[in-house]
Amino acid sequence: MYQTLLLIFVLLTAAVIALTVARRFRLPAMLAYLVVGIALGPHGLAALKGGHDVDAIAEFGVVFLMFSIGLEFSLQRLKSMRQLVFGFGSAQLALTAGAVMLITWFGYDQGWRSGLVVGLAVAMSSTAIVAKMLSERFELHSRSGRQTMGVLLFQDIAVVPCLILLPALAQSADELPRSLAIALAQAIVVLSILIWVGQRWIRRLYDTVAHQRSEELFVLATLWLVTGLAYATGYAGLSLALGAFVGGMLISETIYRHQVEADIRPFRDILLGLFFVTVGMMLNLGFVFENAHRLLLAVLLLVAGKGLVVFLIALTAKSPLDIALRTSSQLAQAGEFGLVLIGLARELKLVSGDVFQLTLAAMLISMFIAPFLIERTARLSGQIAHGNWSHKAKAIHDIAVAGFGLENHVIICGYGRTGGRIAHFLADEHIPYLAIDVDPQQLKRVVPGDGKLVFGSADRTEVLLAAGLARARALVVAYPDVHSAERVVRKVRESRPDIPIVVRVPDETGVAQLKAAGATEVIPEVLEGSLMIAAETLTQVGVPMERALNHVRTARVARYASLREYYKKQ
Predict the structure, then answer these.
(1) Which distant-in-sequence residues (6+ apart) come within 8 Å of 204 by Cβ?
(2) Would you report the helix, strand and coil content of the chain in percent, each value rounded to 5?
(3) 409 burial class (0-12, 13-18, 19+ CB within 10 angstroms)?
(4) Cβ neighbourhood burial of 407 (10 Å; 0-12, 13-18, 19+)
(5) How many Å apart are CA 462 and CA 561, to the nearest integer?
(6) pLDDT digit string, tens, across residues 100-130
(7) CB distance 511 to 524 below 8 Å
(8) 77 with 252: CB under 8 angstroms?
(9) Cα angle vertex 409, ends 406, 415, to 5°?
(10) Which residue of 306, 309, 359, 503 pairs with 477 in a disulfide if CB–CB is 3.0 to 4.6 A?
């Protein structure tokens, strides 16, 4: 008992330290768990030893991951992105898996089954790493972000047939057609029953549970549903994760989707972290060091080959060069489901021990370098796009036409909700303005007053000059991307050291950085929201309104230099 408790303590200590370091360098938590598994596993310090119980618990991490993917599965979203998902996504998966299969089959003489399994595993990319980075960089809705998320969505869907295909591939050559037919029939029958029953009863189940107004009962009902559906598909000879995916997909069509997702997240994150620890434990560092030259070649083939496939598909889809580069770097790594597939292939003896170790190591290394590759390629593509803008005469011409004749106007960079609100205030004061945005959806919005709204990237010098920067009286950065805002501020200061620049940021973290770049004032949304909430709280508990507002004024005087003289006169 005490020995088990000590092992748990060691595991938790290593996880806390690794996660702290990962957060410090903005790396995904998944990489921290992998490092813990590698360091403490049987091939490292041997502080942890794998076992059936640990593997079983870790497998539930995959179950809950598939359940979460099912919750995100939306037929409406799939329909709106069908060209990206089924066009771009299917081409990426087929070409990558096919190319890897041929290399493994003929180059390493491993047989077509082993090549196919390795190809399918390598073709998967990391939703956890990429989605997190795109979200932090505010690029989820950019053109490259939409292409990337469409491919990732297709990969999530493709995992389902892969989980059915692999057990069938493990059968003998004579039994393969029969095994595939049986697996397909089983999948159709079981999934049909689950979906038919689920559509009738899941909503009723949650309606009944919700009426009890018990959070504990709600969580228990969700856990019961996940484990029950996983057991049903597992008992039918299919994957446990398949049943969980169906359950999540059915719940996604109900009003309880977001509550279920919030309740299940702690279980998913902890169990999934344990899964990645077990993956790290499987990696043999001795084998890696002995085969460093082969591993280097495998990583190069994986990252460069997969990136090249995505790059060519993006160019075929008529994406600009910088967008194709961004998309290729965002998908040029292995992913969580690839680790699941290669681990399942090892259990089914579809791949040899050496192939498993080499593939696993190459996949993990590609995931480690992915954040740095995405960041570096983003900078490179920005330089390429900067060069391309000088040749886009029509785009610059349209901005120049919109800004022609404007004097003492305000340039608004970003026309979302904040930019639109600023435009309304300027229109009320009859102050001319020109708004710039790169989102085609925002360009459809009605512009108040006599303002102008044009397409363009505000962090391009040519765009700012065409918008009349030399004649403008002020500039506002109204979108929350700190990195892009800093580029805008620096470029504006190169041409106009005197112009006032007001920047919006989500919180206090980017204030000093933007001030150093030359911003006149930086407005953190969190600060303003918290001041108004605090003032409202004081008035509700009986503090006179004037005294509550004085607290707000005092905080603003301390924070905004431009308001100090104003408040002194009050």
Answers:
(1) none
(2) 75, 5, 20
(3) buried
(4) exposed
(5) 31
(6) 888 888 877 778 888 899 999 999 998 777 8
(7) yes
(8) no
(9) 105
(10) 503
Q: Give the separation between CA 208 and CA 196, rounded to whole angstroms.
A: 19
pTM: 0.66
pLDDT digits (tens, 9 = 90+) for 23-38: 887 777 877 888 888 8
Query: Any idea where the domains of the chain sit in the sequence?
Result: 2-382, 393-519
pLDDT, residue 404, reads: 80
- Phi, psi (deg, nearest 5) at residue 505: -135, 155
pLDDT band at 283 (very low <50, low <70, confident <90, very high): confident
For the domain made up of 2-382, give the CATH fold: Na+/H+ antiporter like fold (1.20.1530)
Sign for the pseudo-dihedral over CA of 514, 516, 522, 525: positive
CA–CA distance, 351 with 349 (Å, rounded to integer): 5
The 10 Å Cβ neighbour count of residue 474 is 17
State how far the Cα of 282 lies from the Cα of 126, in Å rounded to an integer. 19
pLDDT, average across residues 456-471? 85
What is the Cβ-side half-sphere exposure of residue 193, based on CA atoms within 13 angstroms?
Answer: 10
Q: Record the tokens describing residue 237, joined without a space.
A: 């000879």
What is the distance between the alpha carbons of residues 305 and 287, in angstroms, rounded to a whole number? Answer: 24
Residue with tokens 């979108």: 479
- The average pLDDT across 494-501 equals 91
DSSP 296-312: HHHHHIIIIIHHHHHHH
| Cβ atoms of residues 173 and 108 within 8 Å | no
Residue written as token pair 């505000």? 458
Residue 537 Cα distances to 34, 217, 531, 550, 556, angstroms: 45, 33, 10, 14, 18
Residue 335 CA: distances (Å) to CA of 14, 168, 259, 350, 365: 23, 23, 27, 20, 11
Query: Kind and range of the H or E element at 522?
Result: strand 521-524
Mean residue pLDDT across the chain: 81
Domain 393-519 has CATH 3.40.50.720: yes
406 Rama sector, left if φ>0, alpha if ψ -120 to 50, beta otherwise: beta
Q: Smallest Cα–Cα separation from 382: which of 469, 240, 291, 491?
A: 491
Eight-class DSSP state of 509: G
Q: Indicate the pLDDT class of residue 56, thresholds 50, 70 and 90.
A: low
Q: At what angle do helices 353-389 and 127-136 cross, to 10 degrees?
A: 20
Between CA 177 and CA 179 the distance in angstroms is: 5
Name 410's bridge partners. Answer: 433, 474
Pairing state between β 474-477 and 452-455? unpaired
Amino acid identity at 248: G
336-347 helix and 143-169 helix, angle to the nearest 10 degrees: 10
